[in-house]
Amino acid sequence: MRISLALILISFLFAGCSKMEEKKLTDNKTQQNQNTTPGNPHGNMSQDNQQKTDNTDMASEDASDPQAEKLSKEAFDFESVYSKNKTDENKKLLAEKHLDAGNYLMFKANLNPKKKYGPALKHYNRVLDLEPDNNEAKANKKQIEDIYEMMGRPIPK
């Protein structure tokens, strides 16, 4: 009698544990499905991390970046200084300003790709007009061109 009672208790214990394990697996799958949306390139992420990524990677088309605007304006404003006084020092300064603006747009700006890659490419092209051997500008220009080619879009001039 004791043996059959013990066997019944053990079978209930195993049955209860297996149901708890099934529930854990089901809960984990549900949580993964909530964190992974179709077409989501970020994979399984916590909702906080997903929101942070969405805010930085997918900036709205209406968004602006004051620092990007400032650096671009400085570079284009310095064009008039260079056109009046074409010294080697001013040429180097102008190239640096365009390179800084291009690098900020490409790597740090919280902008939609349409608003960052085209302007960055213009800055890199200007750097290469001034300094044809600038390896950093060449590499970054090539990277932007590759992005446009991968998207099947024409490269802006």
Describe this structure in words.
- The chain has 157 residues and is an all-alpha fold.
- The chain has 2 domains: 56 residues; 86 residues, Serine Threonine Protein Phosphatase 5, Tetratricopeptide repeat.
- It is 76% helix and 0% strand.
- The protein contains 6 helices and no strands.
- It is elongated, with a radius of gyration of 28 Å.
Describe the largest sheet. Answer: none
Q: Hey, roughly how much beta strand do the residues contain?
A: under 5%
Number of domains: 2
The CATH topology assignment of the largest domain is Serine Threonine Protein Phosphatase 5, Tetratricopeptide repeat
The stretches of 5 or more residues where confidence is low (pLDDT under 50) are 33-58
Terminal Cα span: 90 Å
Q: Name the CATH class of the largest domain.
A: Mainly Alpha
What is the element layout, followed by pairings?
Elements: H1 2-35, H2 47-57, H3 66-84, H4 88-108, H5 113-130, H6 135-151
Helix pairs in contact: 3-4, 4-5, 4-6, 5-6
Question: Tags for this entry?
Answer:
Serine Threonine Protein Phosphatase 5, Tetratricopeptide repeat, about 75% helix, about 0% strand, about 160 residues, mainly alpha, elongated, 2 domains, single chain
Compact overview of the structure:
With 157 residues, the protein is mainly alpha-helical. The chain has helices at residues 2-35, 47-57, 66-84, 88-108, 113-130, 135-151. The longest helix has 34 residues, at 2-35.
